[in-house]
Amino acid sequence: MDRYTIRVELHDADEEDYETLHGAMEAGGFTHTIEAKDGTTYNLPSAEYNYEGEIEIGEVREKAKSAAAATKRKYAILVSQVTNRLWFGLEELYRAGEEL
């Protein structure tokens, strides 16, 4: 399964625009979380998303563009295919499948 990290930046946007983006990204199969090998789930930084599936990187970008376009704002998108991830200081959401 392929894994991607996606960053979306909306230009001249407000909180409501980002709420629209979050909903459209979720509807497109993106998550705002990542899971560690031990099963702990973490929230990603603002406007960063995770996508996992059998899909090419260009298709991920097009899905993200469709979601960002729903805000009717200008936007920038960066998609990175992931082989490994390391992080520090992300907010824990679930530990071993249990909500904190």
What does it look like?
It is a single chain. The chain is α+β, with helices and mostly antiparallel strands and 100 residues long. It has one domain: Alpha-Beta Plaits (2-Layer Sandwich), CATH 3.30.70.2360. The chain is 26% helix and 35% strand. It has two helices and seven strands; from the N terminus they run E-H-E-E-E-H-E-E-E. The chain has helices spanning 15-27, 57-69, and strands at 2-10, 33-35, 41-43, 48-53, 75-82, 92-95, 98-99. The chain has a four-stranded antiparallel beta sheet with strand order 2-3-6-7, with no helix packed on it. It has a three-stranded antiparallel beta sheet with strand order 4-1-5. Helix 1 packs across helix 2. The longest helix has 13 residues, at 15-27. The radius of gyration is 14 Å and the shape is globular. The chain starts with a strand and ends with a strand. The model has no long low-confidence stretch (mean pLDDT 94).
